[in-house]
Amino acid sequence: MGAVPKMKTLTRLLRLWRMYAWLDFMWITRSAQQSLLYFTGDAIVNLAALTSTLLLAERFDGIGPWSKFQIIFMLGYAATATGLLDIFCGYNVLFIGRRLGRGQFDHTLIQPQPLWMALLTDGFNPFGASSAFLTGLALTVWAGGHLALSPTSGWLALFGLNLIASAGIVLAVSFFWGSFAFFAPRAAEEINTPLLHMFDHLKLFPLDGLGLGMAGGLLTVVPVGFVAWYPCRALLGLDPASYAVLLTPCAALLFGGLAIWMFRKGLRHYERVGSNRYRDMGHRG
Fold first, then answer.
1. pTM of this structure
2. Which SS3 state, helix, strand or coil, does residue 208 take?
């Protein structure tokens, strides 16, 4: 009996993704010229974001214990994880503080589906936000070829698991801090912006040369090390520990639990007091 509701939920989820994918496709293909300019500009921006680390790796044939193509693999992994978030969490789902702080959360609450499903589907834009994902995937495959990786089905499964976990950690941290906008909407409206910019800047470099305290802080307080550095260390065999490939997924469960706790706490506050402001910008209309 329990399988029937689960199948209906999955069907509903797939239908919503299909609907939003079609809307995104219609938007991105409204003009051939604009589509070409959009994808070209987006690809240039995504490649330019990786250029500094790429140039350092080329100039010194690597960074620390990482070879040049190991660095490229890490950069590709980071861009792919970011691309997943862009695809599934667009329209200020990732920047959840904006929705909450601008008084736009009711747009989500009035939708005829559970809150988790609305947040999981409302930001889905697989065509307009695919540039970072495709760029990262291409870099990862290219680097993997030069590293002579011979991935087995098990390794590919661990790669996918770690990739989802890395994206999940960024999303969890964003939701944890963005939930403060429930309590202070005006002050915390843009709290996610500097946070995610910090992640974007720090995820591009290996953290091997840092001291134990600093590296630990970048795996706990600000877990940017789980975006690319640590999972790539595990996947490329730079960390010999047998549990290394499972540490990032375990961290994702921990940070996800903290984010859910904080979001629910803010939601209970919102149920009592609502929002005293509204800005008619930045929502999907």
1. 0.93
2. coil
